[in-house]
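Technical note accompanying the year-one report. For the benefit of new consortium partners, we illustrate the data format agreed upon in the data management plan: each record pairs a sequence with a structure-token string. No post-processing was applied to the example shown here.
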Amino acid sequence: MDLEMIRRIQEDSEQVNQLYEKINEDTRLNRSKAGRVEFLTNVRYIERYLKPGAKILDLGAGTGEYSLYFARKGYSVSALELADANIRVFRSKLRPEDSVELVQGNALDLSRYPSDSFDVVLVFGPLYHLHREEDRRRCIAEAMRVCKKDGAIFFAFINHDMVMLTELNYNPQHFRNGDYQKDTLRLNDFPFVFFTSEEARAQLQAAGVELLHEVASDGASELMETQISAMDEESYRQYLRFHWYICEKPEFFGMTNHMLFVGRKK
């Protein structure tokens, strides 16, 4: 790794550290019924590719929501997380019996992991923060390198176009004074990096990823958080069934804040 790459990793690490000192990542996926849709949908797809004894690598593991879930299902999990705040919370939730190897590190440098060593690789955070195309290419390439040839890799992106709509929940004047370029309708990439579905798909295909699924992970859950979170249990179960029915339909793929791409090496 050259000195320029090391400098960039250090700069990006500091920026991410500052962000997650302000954001409570630990509540994002479990704050409400609506917040849980993304987690339940991603788990549903991950479990399709898990076999007994599978090894999982969770890159950008956050506060451990996925790592701990699968470790407590009996899988061996290696978790890599960058932000100090998330590491602190993750460690506080670990039990002695949890089969989780948690390390602090950057998804651009996976040299600690041998090639072809994991059955499932989760990339559920790094691509939210990598502003440079060359860094995104490196992240994707490293995730592919450490995944077994017959394994599955799960990439998450934040959907540019849906964010434009959900911002109205927080700022009714978003289209007047929101943080975007008024002529191009392009969001400013800070503190997160946003992608259209076409941009995300093209990056993965250019890296040699064979795409197996394109999934609207959370669908309309953030846009309709109040209604979904107020549902009784029976209604919520039916809503989830409906969400899973439409989440891979091309006409609904763009209706989500988080896009999930499931792929493997060609």
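Partners are asked to follow this layout when depositing records. The radius of gyration is 18 Å.
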